[in-house]
Design goal:
The protein is an alpha/beta fold and 273 residues long. The chain has a domain of 189 residues: TIM Barrel, CATH 3.20.20.80. The chain is 30% helix and 15% strand. The chain has six helices and nine strands. Strands 1-2-6-7-8-9 form a six-stranded parallel beta sheet, covered by helices on one side. It has a three-stranded mixed beta sheet with strand order 3-5-4. Helix 4 packs across helix 5. The longest helix has 21 residues.
Length: 273
């Protein structure tokens, strides 16, 4: 069974607690739990970054700012949580828009996003990022990030843009900033997405594994020159498969059986809910 992400665990606890309270109310009973301000003897220590966050890829420049105008408000909030929890939250930069993001080395702003409200009114579904996008990784000191690469867009130009982005991403995350990489967001929805399928209906687990292995290897090769330390077997690790669930068009167990971790670079088995 895949380990639950700390945020997922806390959300589950909140849901269970709310359900228990509702049940007690229906039964005409109530309970009061007194929580001490100080930890009891023998209390366990929370996992590192037990409270962590996922930020939509298109929104990172807003939340973090850039070198000349860092978002100190966001950083202060993260520092406050870190002071209470003992570890500053880990930040996953990904979500749906990581699979819309196309890198353009000549773009002179961090990103340009275009909304198509027929597809989604929540985020841009045409997204171009430039070199200055990666400045946002420099504004939150002592923070570890997971950067999401685009697997969804499958044209020759999009695949080349992915490789072109690698030196900028790895240089931005040197010096202890990198937690893991991620390639693709919820690929088990690629052929069924209501926002428009990006794979044929015949695309299966083995097809996904073959593409994942091909592009994780290509990313590593592109990283070896500019960031040899991050391209080492010890440092080059991924969140995977980052599926939307366990009952969609791809089975996570089958992907594992088909060789997803052939290169032994899957650090965290991830599933969304």
């Amino acid at each position: 069974m895949a380990p639950l992400h700390p945020v997922a665990i806390s959300l589950c606890a909140a849901v269970i607690g709310a359900q228990a309270a509702a049940l007690a109310q229906r039964l005409g009973k109530s309970s009061v739990i007194l929580v001490s301000a100080a930890a009891t003897s023998g209390a366990g220590v929370p996992l590192d970054a037990f409270v962590s966050y996922s930020i939509e890829f298109s929104s990172l420049p807003d939340f973090a700012g850039n070198i000349s105008a860092p978002n100190t408000f966001s950083n202060n909030l993260l520092n406050n949580i870190g002071n209470l929890a003992g570890t500053k939250p880990y930040i996953r930069v990904g979500g749906n828009t990581q699979d819309y993001a196309i890198f353009n080395s000549s773009l002179d702003v961090a990103s340009i996003g275009i909304f198509n409200t027929n597809i989604s009114s929540d985020y841009p579904t045409t997204l171009t990022i430039g070199p200055s996008y990666f400045e946002s990784y420099q504004t939150w000191p002592n923070t570890k990030f997971t950067h999401g690469f685009n697997l969804g867009r499958n044209s020759t130009a999009a695949r080349q843009a992915l490789i072109d982005s690698v030196p900028f991403a790895c240089k931005a995350l040197e010096g202890g900033k990198l937690l893991h990489w991620e390639l693709g967001n919820e690929p088990d929805l690629y052929k069924t997405s209501s926002q428009g399928p990006v794979r044929p209906s015949t695309w299966n687990e083995q097809d996904y594994v073959d593409q994942w292995l091909h592009w994780t290897r290509a990313i590593k090769a592109a990283m070896e020159g500019p960031c040899p330390n991050l391209a080492s077997n010890k440092s080059y690790t991924y969140y995977a498969p980052s599926f939307a669930g366990t009952s969609n068009s791809l089975d996570p167990i089958v992907t594992w059986e088909d060789g997803l971790d052939t290169d032994k670079d899957t650090a965290v088995i991830t599933s969304h809910k």
